[in-house]
Amino acid sequence: MTRYINALLVFLMVLSAAAVYDMKYEAEIAAENINKKQAEIVQAREDISLLKAEWALLTRPARMNDLLARHQDILNLTPMSSNHIGTLADIPAKPVVPPVGLPTEQSADGSAVLPQIQDNTRRVQ
Question: What are the pLDDT digits (tens) for 45-67?
């Protein structure tokens, strides 16, 4: 009887060792993936830094003034003044678009199409 118990214990020990080896192998793969992702993050940060430097170089005020002077005849840009700033009254009203499927009626002068609104409220006298 003890032989069977010993054989069972040896089998469980081998099975446990295989499980530990599998966990160690998976942990190594996870560590490699983490290192790979960290390297990608470092590369992306370097790319972002390079792109920011390039953007700063391309948008220098002196370069922009040179480009503006060179292409003034095409762009027709002028410096911004207070006349360029409008008020809310300068913005045209949004045209009324009736929902699809509802009956509509046209205004007397024909300039607007108004949806017919049904009044479903009951009036108490």
Answer: 999 999 999 999 999 999 999 99
Cα 70 to the center of its chain, rounded Å: 36
Q: Which two tokens stand for residue 72?
A: 């003034």
Cβ(98)–Cβ(104) below 8 Å: yes
Cβ neighbours for 57, distance < 8 A, ≥ 6 positions apart: 63
- Residues in the chain, overall count: 125
CA 108 to chain centre: 47
Q: 98 with 113: CB under 8 angstroms? A: yes
Tokens of 85: 């700033």
pLDDT in tens, 70-108: 998 998 888 888 888 888 888 888 887 766 776 666 677
